[in-house]
Specification:
alpha/beta; four-stranded parallel β-sheet; about 15% strand; AB_hydrolase_1
Amino acid sequence: MVQVAGGQARLFGSSSGAVLALEAASQLGDQVTKLYLYEPPFIINDSRKRVPAEYVEHLNRLIEVGKRTEAVEYFASEALGIPGEFIDYMKADPSWQKMEQLSHTLAYDGLIMGNTQSGKPLPADRWVVKASTIIIVGENSEPFLHDAASALAERLPQAGIHTLPGQDHSAVVMAPEVLAKAIAEFGL
């Protein structure tokens, strides 16, 4: 697609999509001129519970036997770190049914993340990105997301961090105009 569009691209990704954009930029090299990453959810220390090593396999088993509700619960508790007492409230929201319908895709997030949610430091040589990169994090986001942004910025030669005042991990959905402004300020 990059070739058809003129040979260069600017990439944006949010959450696990930020990791997908990072992987693509690493593969595409000089074809990516700017990289905008919103809160890649790496777990690189003990600031948040680690995602279980068998996470993807367990999700796939739940889906294989038709346990969509359980798959979404597992995703919410293990990948998102949502305490169990809040999950029952989430089930009452109409969006829960939509999550159940898409539950067969939840394992894709785990595949994209690989072992970067294991509590270990980011690999030093996994991403070779030359593009100018901004790693954006919400001021009100959990500490592990701030830690992840800092660790990634240390790994990329042309990366900086920008904090969005008053925002959290939901800024892409809840405050897209705030995120768009930060991206525009970085340069389109």
